[in-house]
User: Fold Regulatory protein, tetR family from Halopseudomonas sabulinigri.
Amino acid sequence: MAEARKTGTRPAEAPGKRALMDAAVRLAASSRCITSLGLRELAREAGLNPNTFYRHFRDMDDLGLQLLRESNQTLRAPLRQLRRKAARQSIADGSIDPLQEEALRGRRVAQQTVKLYFEYVLKHRDRVVIAVRELHGPSELLRAELRKQMDGFAEDMAADVQALGLAPKGISPAQIKLIATLLSRNLLYLSLDYIGEPERREAILELAHEQINMLFAGAYLLQERAKNDSP
Assistant:
């Protein structure tokens, strides 16, 4: 451990802990909440003695919390990269002039971002399914952790929308944050449909894209109405 601190490297993860976490993902992704898993069932799936569990976790809540935090680390930064990649592609492919109004550029980036987001979802489908289920699961600890993580995703989205100039002029930072909060939750729910209904994937992509456009267009119109109504 001391050597790891000196070199800046992370200490190696215990194989038993990794096996238990992977087993929990396999079991919970099928149809279960993490906290509903039985200790012996989990140990059997991991190929370990049940007593091994308590060397690494206090209880199932603790295991679930560590799984969700690991997933957050896996997903959060790449999702920001996907959004920025979409912004770069919208200019690099020559299909949109960077000097055009923000609304037009924002629509194109939204379309690219949604596509890249759902591609990423398919690569991490088990973790996404678990997140959706635990958001309404029996554990308050895990629900609170997911709400915190989704707030973080929304903050990232709002910051990127403003930094990349993806919202129509006149929409306030508070409105952008509210839209980002709504979108972060809605995209997570749509992810479950996207995973489970392959035949509807194109329609789900279009639905997500239209919802983004409608939210920003609605915010813009409300802002303009407020200006016109002001004395």
Observations:
- The two ends are 66 Å apart (CA to CA).
